Amino acid sequence: MSAIRINPAITFYATPAEVAGWISRWKKQHNLYYVFGRVFPTPGLAQDVDWDDPSAIRKAVEEYEVLFFRTDPFDVGVTSVNQIPRRNPDHLHINLPSLGPKGLRWGSLGSVSKKPQAVELWKNIASELLDRTVSGAWFDVPGRGKPAYEEGVRYSRGAASVWRDGTVLLGGGKTVITRLDGPKAEKTGRESIS
Description:
Blueprint: E1 10-13, H1 16-30, E2 33-38, E3 44-46, H2 54-63, E4 66-70, H3 84-87, E5 92-95, E6 98-100, E7 103-105, E8 107-110, H4 116-131, E9 133-140, E10 148-156, H5 157-164, E11 169-170, E12 176-179
Parallel strand pairs: 1-10, 7-11
Antiparallel strand pairs: 1-8, 2-3, 2-4, 4-5, 5-8, 6-7, 9-10, 9-12
């Protein structure tokens, strides 16, 4: 499991429905503590999601920007979601992908945990994410004149499907994904899903 890196975080595109299913399984399988958080449009934290209700999980994924998992209870005595990481070491940090009118924005999964048991667990979860996604995407970078290939960006079946149906996969700034294949995408040792 040591070959999987979770620092820096793994960047991925997936639909809210896919992410809701993944995080539900991880939460239940590993008996994890959690906190959903957001800064916009209204700052807030949530720890009252009904994990037995798929629609409640999906709603949380759609309404919040970030999800933290931990093997120990969270200290949520904070004034901002941005203080959660410092107050709660050894967490898994998931920036949730979001689907809006402009397109599908990427998410990420990572941790800077030093606790060996937590690191091993987070790597197991990262391995599942890697199994459910494929690497390799071409970005249109304004002003560059030609697309740029990025092997480290991953995408799920659902992300590929909404992209084929016309949903834009948004990068940073005005950068967008123009193709979901590439010279190295098939060399990952993982199943192609495009």
